[in-house]
Each structure stands twice: as C-alpha cells, then as structure tokens.
Amino acid sequence: MSKKRRMFDIDLPDEDTVETFSAEKVAPTAKPRAATESRRGPMAAAITENADSLRDREALVAKIRAENDALAHEHVRLKQQGLIVDLIDLDMIETRKLTRDRHAGFDEELGELVDSIRDVGLSNPIRVEQRPDGRYELIQGFRRIQAFTQLLAETGDAEAYGKIPAGIMARGAELDVLYRRMVDENLVRKDISLAEMAQLAIEYAADPMTEVSDPDKAVAKLYKSASYSKRSYIRSFIPVVKRLGEVLHFIHEVPRALGLALSSKIDEVPGFVPAIQAELAGWDNRSIEDELSVLRRFAGGETEPKSGSTRPSKPAAEAKAKTSFQIARPEGAAKCVAGAGRLEIRLDRDFSTIDRRKLEAAVRGLLDEIG
Q1: What is the pLDDT of residues 71-95, one digit of tens each?
Q2: Fewest C-beta atoms under 10 Å: which of 138, 249, 284, 293?
C-alpha cells in the first residue's frame, strides 16, 4: 500500500520585507525597574531602598555637621573681637580689673550722653570680658555705664536701663592688650586731658599685675598709637601729677603749656612744691580759675584774668572768700562763682539773645529767692 504525500502551501515574504540580523553578540535591552524589582521580590527592593536612605541620611548629617563647625568657628572669631552683643544686667558688671583713664568727679559731658541715650538709645555697646564666676569685667565704656546707672536711678525703669548692650570678649586676653583697647578708644576723644593720661601711666606702672614698673615706659606701652610729641607731653605731666596731684582739685584742667612749665620747675626750684601746697592749703571752695591763677603765678606765667574778662584781679587771700559750683544743663555745665559783691554764671550760651525783660525778671527772681 503506498503512502500519500501531503502538500502544504507556504507563503514566503518578499525580498524587500526580509529582516537581516548581525552575527555580532547583542547586549540585552534594559528591562523596566518595575519588572526588575518584581523579579527580585519585595524583600530585595526594601533592602535597596533602605541602603539608599542611609546614604542620603549620612550625607545630610555630614552637611549639618560641617555647617555647625563653620558656625562655631565664626562664633569664636566674633567673640574674640567683642562682636557678640548681649544685654547684661548692670549689677553683673565689675569695673575693678583696669584702672580707668577717666578721672572721678563731675563730668559736664555726661549729661549730654544721658540725654542722647534717653532720646535715641545707646548706639555703641560697651565691651566686657566674662569671668569664670559668670560675672563680667568692663573693658570699654565706663561713661556709658555711668549714664545707664544715672538713668536707672532717675527713672526706675529697669526694663529700659537695668541692662546694657555689651560686646562680650573671650577670656584670656593679655592685660596690656585690654589696657590698650581702653586707651585707644579714649585717645580719639578731645576732652581727655594730659593729666588723666599721665595718671593712668603712673597707676599702670604701680599695678603688680603688669610687667612695667616705670611710668615713662608705661607711656610708651599704653600710648603706642599716639604721636611722639603727645607721648612727650604725657611724660612731662607725670611729675606734676605725682607731686601736686593730691593738693590740686582741678589738675585735669591744667592746660599743656602750664603743665610743661610746672614740670620744668618742680625739680629745678627748691621748695617749689611745698610753696604751692601752702598757698592752696585750706582753700576748699576755690574755683578752676582760682587754682589755675595760683599755678600760673608760681610757674612764672600770667596771673591776670584772660583777655576780655570783666572779672577784677584780686589777690589769692581775698579770692579764698568764694563759693564755686557747677550745674548740669542741656547746653553743658553752668559754672557758678559767688564772691564778695558779685555772682557769676558761666555757660556756653549767648545771653544777649534773650529778651531783656525776661532776663531781668529771671535775675530779680533769683535775688528775691536768695534774699
């Protein structure tokens, strides 16, 4: 029996549609992430996500740590320069570490500072150094402390004047650096006298905590930024302060020329200092002009009143029967001198601009009041 051959129809594609393939090995195409993850399973996917999260977290922690380190270094730098400012209680600030170059007593410009702080606040913070016990030592700003203390006493407003803005300096600065900071700040002030500068040099040299024991060398160290001539003037005032500082009430009012003349005679003229001491002994109510007149006479200078003054020239014995005082005013200090037959008020104001009738009424009221 013979087998039958089956026949099938085969459709071949046209030559133009036939695809050709390279014999080279072809890399498999990347599969979608979802497909890969589904193949790895949920546990493998969770492990991968956790590792990525840990790497991101470590990078974030490292970034935050670097920023904190940078802020810490910047804080230290600013603190060393006294640029970190805070409000500090007045009673937490000590003023004993440094000898001040401002003399104690009436300060006619303190009233202006008080008025300025009352009106617009404090524009320039003080500088302090923090102590180990948590209190602070004043480095700069003695007059500002005085002004705040006065305002607190006058107003009782502890919220406004019980604390003062202060730049906090890092501990450990050398003592002579702290002195230089204080001195350099006050050197720009025109009202600080040569006698005040000489007094600071004397007390700096006497301080056992400093390395200098000679006041002349203290001048060179403290006033390094001052001119040579100014340092020379300060040294000339040292013997005046040393020998006459206790007897003179107004040594800070002694002008440069008079101070230099006194300095040259202190060691040259025998008995010079005792003679001045005897002249001023017991004369407690003398004025600034009274004292300067005596000093000029001993120094060989003028003893007459300044040109243009209507005050009569009187001997020292008669001048002792005087009373002098000062009154703080917005215009400055009103210097008052009362003597035999006269009452003098000196103030930086043009009284000729005041209406005559108003001025006359004021004087009449004053005379009626004092009887």
Answers
A1: 777 666 766 665 677 899 999 998 7
A2: 284
